[in-house]
Amino acid sequence: MDNVLGGVLAIRLLAACFPLYDIFHDDQQLTSPLTSYSRLREGVYLFKNGLDPYSGGVFRQSPLLLTLFSTLLPLSPVLSPLLWTLCDGIGAWCLSQIWKLRRSSESEQRSRTGLIVALYLLNPYIFLPSLAQSTSTFDNTLFLVTVYSACAGNVPVALLSLAFLTHLSLTSVLFLPPIILLLLHGPSSRLSKPVMFSGYKRALPLALQASIYVGILALLSTLATGNWTWVSRTWGASLSLPELNPNPGLWWYFFTEMFDYFRPFFLMTFSMHLLIYVAPICLKFQHDPLYATFLLQGVFATFKAYPTLSDPGLFLSMFSIFPEVYPYLRNPIVTTLLHLHASLLLPLFHRLWLSQGTGNANFFYASTLVFGLANGFAVLDAIWAGLRIAFGTVNDGVEMVQK
Hints:
Layout: H1 2-17, H2 21-24, H3 37-48, H4 63-71, H5 79-102, H6 106-121, H7 124-131, H8 136-151, H9 155-168, H10 176-185, H11 203-225, H12 229-240, H13 252-256, H14 263-275, H15 278-284, H16 289-303, H17 310-318, H18 332-354, H19 361-388
Helix pairs in contact: 1-5, 1-6, 3-4, 5-6, 5-8, 7-17, 8-9, 8-10, 9-11, 10-11, 10-16, 15-16, 16-17, 16-19, 18-19
């Protein structure tokens, strides 16, 4: 695994050294107003010169990143590619360790570890946002660190990294229930032998500890910026959708066509839509919380306000650690072809509309609908396979019905 990780990282680092940032840094498929590297540089510049970066409404990233890149890690053409590549390497290593903790057999661990690392680092949905130096790379790395720490039973690190992730992306707070279940139940594969979880009373102290971490980081962010403006500019942006920039998600075009009178109602509806998936998935897959976390990642990647390609890329990469569900997928070919179709349409219609001017917004939104359909098919297929595996092999002529 070490050889594979080192070799792929060398390839990634070589690619990062080429002047590709200028090509990708403003691509709305790879970056968003919440993850843009150019906006991060502008915010750091304003902060260093004693100006409030949140006063202009352009900078919408966490004060934690603002403080980090203003002091310890200055942004530069040399350091930034190294940092983004390192973060992807840490994420790939965490994903391989999650696989090892899920599997007890050493032969199984060795057989797929290199493949898991390569699939993550060479996934174009992960690779291209990293070349664009989108801070969604940090989101993915923190998510995998959180899941790995939870699988290893390291409570402080898991909850603290989840608190950091929540400050970078407010939607990530919804991962708290499955992460707590993962801390209490472990990462072992139990999809084929579902059992009811009974340790809910032990979850309350963990939820309280996570809340304390989030509160402490919020206080530190306020002390760093000198006011609470950052709350509405960062967390509030995920709920109020202040900028209707084109992206691979489903929100932007809908609210572009929305009358202002109806906007608050549909903002509430779209935001609550993410919330309704958490309890059903956590309850149905309480016997395998790692799989529940994986499914929620796919749901949020499809329906969040400002997604980039790295969000579904993480979900698709995590498929590699659940080989037991492969025989039970219903439509893997259809899902694969939809993703292939969308990956061709997205850059094509994006260029036709915004570069050449021969298309319009409907072109690009049609491709995002295909992309959303592909992500939705992948999530539904994963849910079906996770439920179907408990029944084992069904003989011909026998109908399976689940109550």
